[in-house]
Amino acid sequence: MAGITEDRTLLPEHRAEIAELRAFLDAAPEAAEPAVLWGPDGTAKALPAEVYEALLVVVRALSEGKAVTVAPVHTTLTTQEAADLLGVSRPTLVKILDRGELSYSRPGRHRRVLLADLIEFREQRRAKRRSGLDELVDLTEEAGLYDD
Question: Is the pTM of this model over 0.70?
Answer without folding.
Answer: no
